[in-house]
Write a structure and sequence with these properties.
The structure is a homodimer. The first copy, chain A, contains 10 helices and no strands. Chain A is mainly α and about 230 residues long. In chain A, α5 runs antiparallel to α9, α7 crosses α8 and α8 runs antiparallel to α9. Chain A is elongated. Chains A and B meet through α6, α7 and α8 of A and α6, α7 and α8 of B.
C-alpha cells in the first residue's frame, strides 16, 4: 500500500486525472446520444475495460460523474460559441447573429454531433428537483443570458430598436433554434432555412442603422458584416 | 391456487385490466414529470403497494410498461386536441389555429400539467434505436402530419396562399409551440404571447380571403372565427 501510495504521489495525479478526463469524455458521447440516464458505472466500466471499483474511485458516485459530464458539455458548448466571437471582438447585432450561428454550427459540427444534449436534458429536467437538474437549468439560463446581454448591447449601440423586449427576443431566437434542431432530428436536413429565419427575425428587430438590403439573404448579410469590419479610417 | 384461479376467471380479467390501467396512469404521471427512464418496476410497486412480481404479471417487462404509458400519453394528447376540433367540424385556417391552440391548452391544462412529455422524449430519443424511441418518433410524426394535412386543406380551400410550403409552415408553427413550452418551463409564464405569435404566423400564410383586421389580436381573431361560423343563409 505504501509503495502504491508513493507511486500515486509521484505520477498518480496526472495519470488519474487523464483517466478521469477519458471517462468523462466517453460518458459524454453516450449521454449526448442516449441521455444522462444511460450512464451507468457498469456500462462505462465495460466500454473502458476498467473495473467498476476503479471507476468508483475516480468519481465516488453516479451523480458526481453526471455532474462532470454536464460540466464538460457546458465547456464544449460555450467555448465553441464564444471563442470565435471573443477572438473577433464581435459586438452589436453581429454578436447576436454570431451566437445563433455558432449554436447551430455546434449542433451540426461540434464534438457532440446532433448536439441536442441540453435541449433534451432541459425539457426532461425542467420540473425535477436535485443538483443535476439544477445544473442543467443553469446552463440553459446562461445561454439565454448570453443572448439577452448581446441583444441589450446591440440596443444600446442603436442597432436594435429601443422598443425591443430583449428577453422576448431571446426566447424568439431560441424558438427558431430548437425548432430547427427538431426538424434536423426529424428529417436530417441542415440549418440553411433556420439561418434565414434568424436573419428575418433580426431584420424585424433592427434599426435603420443597418441597411435593409443587408437582410436580403444570408449571403448579403455575411457580405455586409465582412464589409463593415474593414476599419473606416483606412 | 385453484380457488384463486377460479376467482380470477370469474372477475379477474376486469379487475386485472383495471389494475393495469391504474398502473399505467400512475406511471404516466411519473414519466411526464421525470421521463420514461424514471419508471422502474420497483418504484411503481412501492407507490402502488403492490408486489414486484404482481406488477411483472401485468406487463411482462419494463419495455411493455413503457409502451403502454406512451400509448396512453398519445391518446390523451390527440383526444384533447382532436375531439373539440372534430366535434365542431373545424376546417381551413381555423383548423390549423385550433390544432396549435389546443396543443397549448393540453400543455397548460391537460392531464399532464407542464405537458412537455413528448417534446423531451423526442429530443432524447431521436437518435436511439429500438421500439420505444420508434414509438415516440411515430407520435411526433403523427402530430406533424396533422399540422401538414390541416395546412394543405386550408390551402385547397384558398385560405392559405398556394405558394406556402406546408411542411415548412408546420415546422415553423411547431417551433413557436416548443419554444413557448421552453419559456413556460423556464419562467412559468403562460402561452399568451405564443398565441399571438401563432396568429402572426398564420397572417403571413393567409390569402385575402381572410380579412386582415381579423389578425389584429387573438381577441379579434376569435371574434372573426365566431362570426364566420354563423350560417350565411340565415
Amino acid at each position: 500500500v505504501t509503495k502504491k501510495g508513493a507511486t500515486k504521489t509521484a505520477r498518480g495525479p496526472t495519470k488519474g486525472s487523464e483517466t478521469r478526463q477519458l471517462v468523462v469524455a466517453l460518458a459524454l458521447q453516450i449521454a449526448a446520444r442516449e441521455g444522462l440516464s444511460a450512464l451507468s458505472i457498469g456500462r462505462l466500466a465495460k466500454e473502458l475495460r476498467m473495473s467498476k471499483s476503479g471507476l468508483f474511485l475516480h468519481f465516488g458516485s453516479k451523480e458526481k460523474l453526471e455532474s462532470a459530464v454536464l460540466e464538460l458539455a457546458r465547456l464544449q458548448l460555450f467555448s465553441h460559441i464564444l471563442k470565435p466571437i471573443e477572438a473577433a471582438g464581435l459586438q452589436g447585432i453581429e454578436r447576436v447573429w454570431a451566437l445563433c450561428d455558432f449554436w447551430m454550427d455546434f449542433s451540426e459540427h461540434g464534438p457532440l454531433r446532433g448536439g441536442y444534449f441540453f435541449t433534451g436534458a432541459f425539457f426532461r429536467s425542467a420540473k425535477i428537483n436535485g443538483p443535476i437538474p439544477r445544473q442543467i437549468r443553469r446552463v440553459v439560463r446562461d445561454w439565454m443570458d448570453l443572448l439577452v446581454e448581446a441583444l441589450k448591447q446591440a440596443r444600446r449601440s442603436d442597432e436594435i430598436r429601443p422598443s425591443v423586449d430583449t428577453e422576448e427576443a431571446a426566447f424568439d431566437l431560441n424558438s427558431i433554434l430548437i425548432g430547427a434542431q427538431w426538424a434536423l432530428l426529424m428529417t436530417g436536413r441542415d440549418y440553411t432555412k433556420a439561418r434565414s429565419a434568424i436573419l428575418s427575425h433580426l431584420r424585424s428587430l433592427a434599426t435603420d442603422e443597418i441597411p435593409d438590403r443587408a437582410f436580403e439573404s444570408v449571403k448579403t448579410w455575411k457580405a455586409y458584416l465582412k464589409n463593415r469590419r474593414v476599419p473606416a479610417d483606412r
